[in-house]
Every structure is written in structure tokens, then in C-alpha cells.
Amino acid sequence: MRILKTKPYLTDKELSIMMNSQKRVDYFRDYQIIHSVQVNSGKKAEDIAIILGVSKNKVYKTVQKYNKYGLSWKTGISRGGRRESRCIMSLEEEGSFLNDITQEAMKGQIITYKQIKDKLELKINRIVSDDYIWDLLKRHNWSKKVPRQSHPQSDKSVQEEYKKNSLNYWLPNH
Known about the structure:
Shape: elongated
Strand content: under 5%
Largest sheet: none
Distance between the termini: 84 Å
Radius of gyration: 30 Å
Number of strands: 0
Structural class: mainly alpha
């Protein structure tokens, strides 16, 4: 059995104020774990996890981060989204690239995503995946235009009448 204990970076009152000032639910939950461990010293991680509705592992990891990094334990941590250091292009660069090809697209000169992919690969001198192109278009609210399946002025009743009255010709299978 490991005994949970937090380092005294904040008093119980300061920790409570910090916990209640959080706007994000996940940050509130983490501060709630720290507050519970600090106020209830000597309790097991299992007990705190059951009370707060989290896993025992979450309690251990949260307390470990708080003890290791101190007051800066929540700074610089982000979940999901684009991380600029790993992105091929920034959002602004992607937007300027799409603005450059907008005129061609409006004239109907860009028909397939493959053409956009080829232009992008020439610009950045790197091969990109098909998914990157589709994600790029979705990020900037570009939509795929496809032809209609039927003419807008078509009359269904006339089509059904034609189907009923047309002759069926059977051709031999030679």
C-alpha cells in the first residue's frame, strides 16, 4: 500500500480556491484529486478514486505530476487539436495556399483532389497523404461538388408512364 501525500505548494484554502476557479472540467477534476489527497492525508488511492469516480491510476498519476512539477504542473498541457511543431503547414499557410487556387477552382480547372495534392506537394517539396488533403479541405470549409442525380425539372409521373408503356425487347444471347 502506497501512502499518498502531496508536497505543500499550496494551502488547503488556496487549493480549494484554485480548484473552484477552473473553467475546464478535466482541470477541475485534477485539482479535486489533489485537494482530496491533501485534505485526507493517509487515505488510500482506491478510496479517493471510488469517491471521485476516477481510476486508481489517475489518482497516482495526478499526484505524481503535482509533486514533480509544483504549481506549473498544468501549464503547457493541451489535449487534442493541431500541434504546430508537428504540422506540415500552419493554418495561415494552408489558407493562403487555398486562396491561391480558389480562382482555378471557381473556373472549374481543378476537378479532383489529386490536382490539389500535386500542387501542394510541389509547393512544400514533400509527399503528403490523401487524408491530409481531405482534412485540409474540411478544415477550411471546402466542400465536394457532385452532379445531381436527376434533373431539377424532371417529372416522375412521366418517367413512370414511359417505363410502363415502353416495349421490352429481348435479344438472343449469342
